[in-house]
Fold this protein.
Amino acid sequence: MQKITPFLWFDKNAEEAMDFYTSVFKNSKIITINRYPDGPLEGPMKGMEGKVLTGVFELEGQRLMALDGGPVFKFNESISFYVNVETQEEIDYYWEKLSAVPESEQCGWLKDKFGVSWQIIPTAMSRLMEEDKTGKVMQAMLQMKKINIAELEKAGEEG
């Protein structure tokens, strides 16, 4: 078992989110789902019958947990999932599958339909940023929503 596991709080759609994420990431699976009991629940858990009390799923070897906890907390950009990709095709794939809030897109960051933030970043980015003596790669990246590797490389050559 991994020592630290990200835990995601959803309103009432944790199972939908787990199904979605495991369909997007190829080496992924739902491991377990424990549900709230069927009997009538009272207090803050009223209406949660049959929803996800805890769900464990794995995305590309990374275990995560989820629960349906009601509308008390919302996701924000202070936490995001960083996805390393090798090619522009991978960037395009994840962008198409995950991006659902166009106004939140910037510098490789996007927000999905559940409000979770993701960074879709090519492995070439660290090399390009290290070599960026003039700041042209950084300036090019700051103008992008979805990262374009060819444009970053071109900016690096101009520097």
About this structure: The chain has two domains: 7-68, 80-158.
